[in-house]
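Appendix B. Extra example for self-study. Work through it before the problem class; the solution is given directly after the inputs so you can check yourself.
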Amino acid sequence: MAGDELILLNYWISMFGARVRIALEEKGLNYEYREENLQNKSPLLLQMNPVHKKIPVLIHNGKPICESNIIVQYIDEFWNDKTPLLPSDPYEKAQARFWADYIDKKLYDSGRKITWNKNKEEAEEGKKEVLEIFKVLEGALGDKPYFGGENFGYVDISLIGFHMWFYAYETIANFSIEAECPKLMAWDKRCLERKTVAKSLGDPKAVYDIVLKSRKIKGLD
Amino acid sequence: MAGDELILLNYWISMFGARVRIALEEKGLNYEYREENLQNKSPLLLQMNPVHKKIPVLIHNGKPICESNIIVQYIDEFWNDKTPLLPSDPYEKAQARFWADYIDKKLYDSGRKITWNKNKEEAEEGKKEVLEIFKVLEGALGDKPYFGGENFGYVDISLIGFHMWFYAYETIANFSIEAECPKLMAWDKRCLERKTVAKSLGDPKAVYDIVLKSRKIKGLD
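Solution. C-alpha cells for the complete assembly:
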C-alpha cells in the first residue's frame, strides 16, 4: 500500500532476518533497514519485542511483528495482491508450514553444535544431525526446482537464509554438503540466482570470520 | 464437506492432541478417534508422520496433517465457512500466531521440568518458569474474556490443552496457579464451560496418576 512505513530491525548474519528481507524483496516493498548491535540492543528493539527481545522485528506503520516465519506469513497475507509466497490450497499450505516448522525445530540447534562446539565430538554430532536434516529436506524437495514446486516460496525462504552459514558448517566440521546432498545444493544455487535472495544474504566467509572471532571470545578455541 | 473422512491419531493426555479435538468440535465435524500406544506406535502413525513419528496426526481423506498448531490452522482454513478460529485481519492473525508460538516454545519444556524433575531444584526452576510464562500470558489476555477478544479462538485452543496438566504441575511443585494468576484461571474456567473444550480434555487427576506411575518406571521417585 502506498504510504506504508516499514522498518526492519535485524542483524545481518541472522538466517531468520534474511527470511524477512527476502519476503520484502519478493513483494517489491521498500523498507528501512536498521542494524542492531545484539550486545547493546536498541530501546526500540526492546520496546517492539519485549517478550523475546530478539531480531528480526518488522515494524509496519508503528506496529511490530515478531518471529521470522510469522513475519513472512504476515507479509504474504497483507500484500496478497502480488507474488504469493504460500500456496493458496489449505493442504499445500499446511505442508509448507510443516517444512518451515521442521527447519526451525531442527536445523538451527544442530548447526549450533557445529559452530559453537565445545569439542570435536560435539562438532561431529552436529555434522551428523545437519546431514540427516538435509537428507530429509532433499527428499521433500524431490525433483522439483523449489520446495513449493515451480515457484520459489515460503519453505525456500525459510531454508535459504541458512546458506550464509553453510560455509562455516562445512569448514568447522570438515565436510561438503554438495558431496552428500547434490540436489539440495543445486536448489541452493538456483535460489541464489534470484536477485531477491542474493541481495538479502551476507557473505558466508564473513559469517565464518565472525564465528571464529566469537569462538575466541567465548574461549572455545 | 459432506463425505469427508477424518481420522485423528492421538494419545489422550496430549495437550497438543487436545487442540485438534477442540478445533474439530468447534467446527462441528465428526471424526474417528484412534488412541495410540506411544510405547508401540501403530504402522499407520509411522506411515502418516514418518518425519516426527508423533501424535497428533489428522488424516483427512487419506492425507496426513501433522503438528498441532498447523492442524488447527488447516481445519480453520479448509472449513472456513463456520466458526472462525483465527482472526481475519493479517495483523491480528500475526499476533495470534505469535502467542501460540510463544506457548509452544516455552510452556511445554518448563512444564516438563516440573513433571519429570530429577530433584527439588529442577522442580522449583520449572515452577518459576511456568509462573513467569503464565504472568506474560495473563498480561497478553488483559481484561478480555478470551485471547482473541470476545470470541474463543486459536490462542485459547493452543493453551487450554495444558489445563489437563495444571493439577500435576501444582501438586508436584506445590503451588497454586490461581493464587498467582487469578485472571488466567478465570479464563481457564471460562474455557472449560464450553462443551467443545470439556469433551476434548481428559481428567487432570488421571493425568497426575499417569505422571506418578511413569516417574516410578523412570526411576525418578
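Self-check: The radius of gyration of chain A is 17 Å. If your reasoning did not lead you there, revisit section 3.
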